[in-house]
Amino acid sequence: MKPDVKICGLKTSEAVEKAVSLGATHVGFIFFEKSPRNIEPDIAGRIAEKARGRAKIVAVTVDADNDDLDDIVYLLKPDILQFHGHETPEQVLTIKALYGIPVMKVLSIREPGDLKRIDPYIGIVDRFLFDAKAPEGSELPGGNGVTFDWRLLQNLDADIDYMLSGGLHKDNVAQALKETGARGLDVSSGVESAPGVKDLARMEEFFKSVQLASERTTGSAK
Ligand SMILES: O=C(O)c1ccccc1N[C@@H]1O[C@H](COP(=O)(O)O)[C@@H](O)[C@H]1O
Predict the structure, then answer these.
(1) Disulfide: which of 5, 47, 150, 187 matches 179 by Cβ 3.0-4.6 Å?
(2) Among residues 4, 79, 131, 186, which one is catalytic?
(3) Per the similarity annotation, which family is this (predicted)?
(4) Where are the domains of the chain?
(5) CB distance 59 to ligand 1 below 6 Å
């Protein structure tokens, strides 16, 4: 089966259009000031219109306060809220109830014990996203282009729905799918020419690799 693909950190209409026309199921917008992919909610809201109804619009937030969340939800009207910080299960539940929007909680993974942290979120989140832990000294909790040991996901309960992220690119995505069987992939820096600059040719190559890998695992081109 072809996995969902989220292209994250979009900042231009052109990149949004390209992502959706290549078959992205999700497009992500980053609301985190220190990120080279940070975007103002009103601009994100405007360029996301290209994707509305064609792909899920994801708002990526990091320990955002209520005022910021209000702005993002009002101006972007996301289909999904992604929590990429230290949001507790209680906070996730409260925010989800407040806005009535599906939520995706990110957990950063480096060692087997990290996966135990999913337990209190089960039944609250609509999907997990497993990302690599940020390298020492990085100011970004995600978007660092680093991978983790994907084999750690092999013992995960098959009912746990998740997207895989962290350092994916055209040359490793087939292996990532083979090792994890992930039903969703999330990529940002792997389809950029410089931090925050999406490269349309790299996006195409990424989708080609995903397509080929899916054909290999299912024997079907669809
Ligand atoms: O991309 C960012 O700058 C970012 C900032 C703050 C939180 C999350 C961020 N990105 C997330 O990181 C992964 C993909 O990273 P990469 O492919 O390794 O570059 C994805 O989940 C983004 O949503």
Answers:
(1) 150
(2) 131
(3) Belongs to the TrpF family.
(4) 4-220
(5) no
Q: Which residue has the tokens 């098959």?
A: 158
Backbone angles phi, psi at 53, to 5 degrees: 85, -10
Which of the listed residues 131, 146, 171, 193 should we mutate to test ligand 1's pocket, taking the one with most ligand atoms within 8 A of CB? 131
Q: Which helix (H) or strand (E) holds 129?
A: strand 127-132
Which CATH topology does 4-220 take?
TIM Barrel (3.20.20)
Answer yes or no: are the C-beta atoms of 149 and 131 closer than 8 Å.
no
The residue whose CB lies within 8 Å of the most ligand 1 atoms, and thus the one to mutate among 10, 31, 84, 109, is 84
| Cα 174 from Cα 16, distance rounded (Å) | 24
Q: What is the DSSP letter of 26?
A: E
pLDDT by residue, tens only, the chain of 222 residues: 899 999 999 999 999 999 999 999 999 999 999 999 999 999 999 999 999 999 999 999 999 999 999 999 999 999 999 999 999 999 999 999 999 999 999 999 999 999 999 999 999 999 999 999 999 999 999 999 999 999 999 989 999 999 999 999 999 999 999 999 999 999 999 999 999 999 999 999 999 999 999 988 765 444
